[in-house]
Structure formats: C-alpha cells, structure tokens
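re the bet — no i am not wrong, look at it urself. input seq straight from the record:
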Amino acid sequence: MNAQAIRDINHKLKILRYGEEIRNVAKACRYYGISRETYYQWKRALAAKGTTGLINSKPCPVNLKRRVPSHIEEKIIHLRTTYHFGQKRIVWYLNRYTDLKVAEGGVRGVLLRHGLNRLPKNTKKRSPGPTFIRYEKQVPGHQVQVDVKFLNLQTKAGKKVRRFQYSAIDDATRIRVLKIYSRHTQENAIDFIDHVVEKMPFRIKQIRTDNGHEFQALFHWHVLDKGMQHAYIKKGTPRLNGKVERSHRTDQEEFYQLIDYKGDVDLAAKLKEWERFYNTFRPHTAHGGKSPYEALKEKLGA
C-alpha cells in the first residue's frame, strides 16, 4: 500500500468518525466540504470492503501508450535532479537543446511518478511579497548590477569556511560574471570590476551597487576612472538591484545546493562552469526560454 492510499484511508476515516461522534452527518459534511451522498458512499464501501474500500480508484486505467517515452523521461529526471528545473524550463531546455518536444503535463506526469514533484529544501515557491514595477534597460551594458553573496561553508572536520561571491548581471541580457574571493574588501571589489569589464561582451555605461563598505570611495573612483558611471541604490531598497539579488537565489537553488562542499571542492572552477552554463545554455524566464547570450544576439540583430 503506497503513501497516497494511506492518506486516502486516513482522511475518509477521520470524516466518518467525526460524523459518528457528533451524530450529525449533515453538519460533518458541511464542516469537511463534502456531500451527504459521498459520506454514505464511503460508509457503504467501508462496511463492504474494509479500509481498502476507502482508497481512491483511478477514473480509467493507465494508458502506457500515452506516457512520455523512456528516453525523454530519463532526460526529464536528469534535469530535475541535476539542475532543479521546473516544468516549463525543462520543456524549454529539451526543445531547444535536444530537439525533443514534450508538453508541461507530460513533464508533470514524469515528476509525479518518480516522486520529484516537490522541490528540495530552499527551492520551494515563496510568497511573492509586495509587487513593484520593474524596469528593464533595453541596451546591453547600459546598466550592470553588482552585489556580493556571502557563503557559509564547512569542511569535513567541521571547520567553518567563509567565502564571498562577487556577482555582476547585465540588466538587458541577464549575462552574468561571477568570481569567488576569500575576503570582502574594496580591493577585491575593484579587482572584480576589472574582471567584469574584461569579460562582458559589450561596453558598460553604468555600474549599480548598494551602499556596502566594499563599494565606497576607492571603488567609486576606480569605476569613474574606467570611464563608467557608478550609481548607489537608495538605502533599504534591495529591490532596486533586484536582478542580481534574484540571481543569487538561483545560485543557491541550482548550484550551491547541489555541491557537496567538504573543503575539497574547487569552488572557483565549479563557479566558472556554472557561469558558462547560466549564460549559454540555461533557459531564462525573462527571455521566454532563451539563454542570456541568445538574448544578446537577438538584441544585436545577429
């Protein structure tokens, strides 16, 4: 007997017992939102077949011919377990990079059959919170958001390790540049900006940061000396750098959560691989399933 069958039995027994306890079927049905006809059907099934009669039966037999083919099913499971992709992103990825077409409903069926319909810890949908009007620059390089993600890691011996991921994301294309540092300083922020200028495939007009100590005077003047503008967001409004903030959540869900860090992982090398995958292959919702580099080509008319 599977877990779903046990849940069916427990749920229906709870309602039947409640009706007997209060001796008022109509009131029990109103409380649980079912009809009296359903209540008596369950009661007759329990009397005739015992608790097995309370298990929900499928409306029709499973049609194996309509199932997703096994070779596609394997790819769906791989994308879900390796990258934690949702249904829509799995559909986009398969269609774009493997030329395999499958409906979202088919993906959902595969995930349900294999118990993968629920995302792991920290990847579940969250409350959307307050709604803000978000603006997007249309010209690549017009604005690049920069921020730092704090990493709290641990070695096999239980020693705590602190690392800092400096991140830059282009507002228009969502192309990202990432780099790991062991210290959180202005010097590293300056080094990172030089790295960003070298890596971004277009000229940058403005760098946008919060008011953190790593982005103060030395950093500010270095950005200006590079021929770029530097804008600080208003204090207490991280949403104004929302794209880089959101990208850090993606890093946690689709990258760091999948790394078994015990002090023996080359984070710099792994992050470089992740950056390449994110920019080149990962379907992006903001671009209707296109990757950031595909969005860049589209904006440049290439």
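see?? The beta strands are 144-154, 160-170, 176-181, 206-209, 229-232. told u. also The two ends are 57 Å apart (CA to CA). so pay up
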